[in-house]
What we know:
This protein is mainly beta. Helix content is 12%, strand content 56%. The chain is elongated.
Amino acid sequence: xxxxxxFVCLFNILSMSAQEKFEYGYYIDEMGNKRDGEISEIKPExxxxxxxxxxxxxxxxxxxxxxxxxxxxxxxxxxxxxxxxPSVVSxxxxxxxxxxxxxxxxxGFLQLLTDGDYQLYRYINKGxxxxxYEVNNENLRVLEYKKYLTPxxxxxxxxxxxxxxxxxxxxxxxxKVKSYSALKYNAEDLVEYFTYLNGKSNKKxxxxxxxxxxxVGYAVHSFDIDFIKDLDPEQYGHITVMPEVEYILNKxxxxxxxxxxxxxxxxxxKEYDVEHESGIWHHEVDYASVFTSVGAKKYFLSNENVAxxxxxxxxxxxxxxxxxxxxLRAWTIQFMRVDVGSVGFNSGFGMKFYKRMLIExxxxxxxxxxxxxxxxxxxxKLGYSF
Length: 386
């Protein structure tokens, strides 16, 4: 019976965790021990009491009562004891008529918005953001702001936070741009203020990421040419280079999606001796093109050291060389061209090691033209991600 209950509990945990949105992160327990891995979703407006923690395929349920700091993706939350006024709300039906800010002590998680000598935090109560600050991780104070109702049911504002900032956290650089009275009690204005206060430029961390992948490899190019009669496909191997730009959606996910754009050098050189009624005709083909593809990648079965991915995209093949040396008699019977562009597709499978080294096998195919068929390339590639 005990084994059955254990199995049921484990099954429930795995089933529930499969529905969660995981992103890279960590948590630090009350003893100061830090664990890096993947954390289930935490929203600033709704801090759960428990989160799932995944590391090397193992999933644990972590009670946040035993945690003092947790990071989910780009969000960092720290447990603090702080003061706020619970009567400050957005709903006019619940709004207080008292203009005085009255603090109530609470212990909970605050979202870190700016870090440095001056930290700015946010706590969301009933949809309303309360902002707090610390100087050198000491003396946590709330920035006082309150909406209240007049007897005539008009909404007024107590903007004492502007006085606090000017008197306690004066920022000469900021005051040259705008006055304190123009500051709004929102994340955009306050993050900008505290970022400049820390001597930094106001750059938001993006979840998305652009990387440049550079590949070199060996391509086996197949070609089927119609010299009066359809010839069997031939193959030609050559060294090729393949630069690629990749746009990763949400770099904090272990198995993200991405979009890619790449270029490949395709080449084909071959001599043909074809038997005709009038004798043996000798043909020489020297072909080169740029194969441009755009598509999507999906990563899977990833861990800290290795990430697998599959890719699929559409392509345009643009020849820049299409020389054919043939007997004059052949040209009088049939005009031949191999320098005609076409559309196609690109697909492949790859592995990324230590977030930098790449191994990939991909396949390019150009749809048939009047003179060429089975124009394809199988590419064995090694690369590096910048």
